[in-house]
UniProtKB/TrEMBL annotation:
<comment type="similarity">
    <text>Belongs to the CFA/CMAS family.</text>
</comment>
<dbReference type="InterPro" id="IPR057206">
    <property type="entry name" value="DUF7884"/>
</dbReference>
<dbReference type="Pfam" id="PF25371">
    <property type="entry name" value="DUF7884"/>
</dbReference>
<keyword id="KW-0489">Methyltransferase</keyword>
<dbReference type="GO" id="GO:0008168">
    <property type="term" value="F:methyltransferase activity"/>
</dbReference>
<dbReference type="InterPro" id="IPR050723">
    <property type="entry name" value="CFA/CMAS"/>
</dbReference>
<dbReference type="InterPro" id="IPR029063">
    <property type="entry name" value="SAM-dependent_MTases_sf"/>
</dbReference>
<dbReference type="InterPro" id="IPR003333">
    <property type="entry name" value="CMAS"/>
</dbReference>
<keyword id="KW-0443">Lipid metabolism</keyword>
<keyword id="KW-0949">S-adenosyl-L-methionine</keyword>
<feature type="domain" description="DUF7884">
    <location>
        <begin position="11"/>
        <end position="82"/>
    </location>
</feature>
<dbReference type="GO" id="GO:0008610">
    <property type="term" value="P:lipid biosynthetic process"/>
</dbReference>
<dbReference type="Pfam" id="PF02353">
    <property type="entry name" value="CMAS"/>
</dbReference>
<dbReference type="GO" id="GO:0032259">
    <property type="term" value="P:methylation"/>
</dbReference>
<protein>
    <submittedName>
        <fullName>Class I SAM-dependent methyltransferase</fullName>
    </submittedName>
</protein>
<feature type="active site">
    <location>
        <position position="371"/>
    </location>
</feature>
<keyword id="KW-0808">Transferase</keyword>
Length: 406
């Protein structure tokens, strides 16, 4: 039931706390502005039921209301996220919710990480359509953090530099075997074969990624050097001189990280090198991201996805038989990457709407901008970690980091 007094008290409280270029329009024609500036975001409440998302705002709740149509929101996604986060900050609730023990229990119950479950989660996220991703990614279809060596690179250049940065970090040499776990649409294995002369194997659980990667391999004439498999990493056999995992271990599950790295250790040659490139939480207790944003991503974007703290990752690597040799923080790089993806998404909105239903469009609209905001705020991070087998002499691996940046 519509409560005018409660709404008036809420609008007065918001104006007293923050100055936001926001307009709220109700179903009955009432309008509320929260700044003297022209509104950059307009929230339309189509019926009284939508008010609950405003009167007790959280970033995840506002995102859910937008996705489900309980609120109609207009504006650039970056502005929507900034204003939503500011509204959530006025609620007086702590930014992170849920005890570490409760969150771990929820993860164990909801995320068994079976082969079938993981495959289903990957298909949900990646098999929207290749054309859908093509409208906001770079031409090589690299769906992970780019590397801005100078800070002014365009997205395509920064993604190419990221791949070269990884392959140089692991000291990849001609004739060596490379396994890329979670190979996406094949950009890294193609580059590793073409520029570095490696013999490459990539694995993915996404049929769409697999099909396009195979097409690209054939088009490049690299069938003798590159193979992509539709395969779970747990089913890979053999020994590899180099192993890369880029944007993959977030799907493994925190409770399975030691097993994941132990599996990599078994696949790695005695003097081999592995690099894990992945998102981490900056909360040492590994609770959900602030203001309900983590719950939104778990529900709508990455089913079964879990983020570990860097300390947990390093411990799990050691428990899995790997020695950490180098760690690099690329958090700012991912904030910029996601901001560029968001710009591309909005610039190509008309075409993307033709490829996805309205709900999927709204999910990705706020998800990409939300990730940019989360990286900017240091709620989440991105680390590249280079490892080798524990107890092994690195042998011919360079003594200093100079070679990584040549």
């Amino acid at each position: 039931m519509f409560d005018q007094l409660k709404l008036s008290a809420w609008t007065s409280a918001i104006r007293g706390k923050v100055n936001l270029p926001l307009r709220v329009e109700l179903w009955n024609g009432h309008r509320f502005d929260f700044s003297a500036q022209a509104p950059r975001v307009t929230i339309r409440v189509p019926n009284p039921g939508g008010l609950r998302y405003l009167l007790s705002p959280s970033l995840g709740g506002l995102g859910e209301a937008y996705v489900e149509g309980a609120l109609e929101i207009e504006g650039r996604a970056a502005d929507m996220i900034r204003i939503g986060s500011a509204l959530a900050g006025t609620s007086g609730k702590p930014p992170r919710a849920g005890s570490p023990g409760r969150r771990l229990l929820d993860a164990l119950l909801a995320s068994p990480h079976t082969r079938a479950g993981d495959a289903q989660a990957i298909r949900y996220h990646y098999d929207v359509s290749n054309a859908f991703y093509g409208h906001f990614l770079d031409p090589a279809m690299v769906y992970s953090c780019a590397y801005f060596e100078n800070g002014d690179e365009d997205l395509a250049t920064a993604q190419c530099k990221k791949i070269d940065h990884i392959l140089t970090k692991i000291d990849l040499r001609p004739g060596q075997t490379l396994l890329d776990i979670g190979c996406g649409w094949g950009a890294l294995v193609l580059r590793a074969a073409e520029r570095f002369g490696a013999c490459c194997t990539g694995v993915t659980l996404s049929r769409n990624q697999y099909d396009l990667a195979c097409e690209r391999i054939a088009r490049a004439g690299l069938q003798g050097s590159v193979e992509v498999r539709l395969q779970d990493y747990r089913d890979v056999d053999g020994r590899f001189d180099r192993i890369t995992s880029v944007g993959m271990f977030e799907h493994v599950g925190v409770q399975h990280l030691t097993d994941y790295f132990a599996r990599i250790e078994r696949l790695l040659a005695a003097d081999g090198v592995v690099m894990n490139h992945g998102i981490t939480t900056t909360d040492v207790a590994q609770r959900a991201s602030p203001h309900g944003s983590g719950r939104f991503i778990g529900k709508y974007v990455f089913p079964h996805g879990e983020l570990a703290h860097l300390s947990t990752v390093v411990r799990s690597m050691q428990e899995g038989g790997l020695e950490v040799r180098d760690v690099e923080n690329l958090r700012r790089h991912y904030a910029r990457t996601c901001a560029l993806w968001t710009e591309n998404f909005e610039n190509n909105a008309a075409r993307i709407r033709e490829l996805a239903d309205p709900k999927t469009f709204r999910i990705w609209h706020v998800y990409l901008a939300g990730c940019a905001h989360a990286f900017t705020q240091d709620w989440i991070g991105l680390y590249q970690i280079v490892c080798g087998k524990a107890g092994q002499d690195p042998g011919q691996i360079p003594w200093s980091r100079r070679g990584m940046y040549r």
